[in-house]
Propionate 3-nitronate monooxygenase (Actinokineospora guangxiensis), 344 residues
Amino acid sequence: MFNELRIPVVVAPMAGGVSTPELVAAAVNAGATGFLAAGYLSPAALAGRIEAVRELTGGAFGVNLFVPGPRTEVLLGGHAAAVAAEARRLGVQPGRPVWDDDRFADKVDLLVKDPVPAVSFTFGLPAADVLTRLREVGSHLIATVTTPAEAEAATAAGVDALCVQGAAAGGHRGTFADDTAHPGGAPLYDLLPALRLMAGLGLPLIAAGGLVHGADVAAVLAAGAVAAQLGTAFLRCPEAGTAEAHRAALAAGGRQTALTRAFSGRPARGLVNRFLVENPSAPSAYPQIHHLTRPVRAAGDPEVMSLWAGQSYALASADPVAAVLERLHSEARTAAAALQDRLK
């Protein structure tokens, strides 16, 4: 699938409204590909977005699923109080900190009944029967991994490719474990060649994490990836569903990025704002904290929003998807040619 792309770039799935059908279709029509984010959508909403992509393009695209973790009961303590204080200030009610499985089984049923070319998984691996059912309807299966151990587990499960996520990635870390320590993870340029050299893997690798410039694309292709997955580079594109306050913060620049659990209960990288700084010790409680903070995040105050972004966000532009992809393609070819000249 990825070897057939004119531009070896994947527009990453970005849950929460960013991954619109227009964003995905624009990538496909420009010679790359993209993934719809199924996270937080109802099965009916996901079905509508899949249909909308098909109305806009005849090319191959994918859907990303969040793999649910075990049902847990967590005491949120002081973090719940901090969220409640922000909610009072903004004139909204906090959400209910409940556990759910994001209707994972229903979404799998949808994708078996109405297959798409590719399905990727984040936050772990589904049960073997899920992979079997999706494989039998012809979907290309991809697991997001952040460590060699996760890559070994995904390979043993029988997926078709690995999306290798480095530590500089914006948004949620795709780690299988949801433990109490923030997982820093290996830099992409350490992790990618390490996986290429691991005996027994042999799967195509899609590189992700902090990639914004065409030289980044050239570098990961030279390191053995079949494609580069970029998300932050497309956050400001007009086709993306990025909130206006989020767009403005990205355009303004000047903020550092950091990993935090404050907004969702899982480690995710975003622009540093007041809520992130004031809540450094949020517990490992996903999706409970995601539901708890949702009304606060939706209020539009950039100091309490989850401003997801990778470390190189300042290089992203507000150009249309096709223009961004063509620029990446040109930059990548220039970087690859320069590398060849240096090696002569």
Summary: The chain is about 40% helix and 15% strand. The longest strand covers residues 140-145.
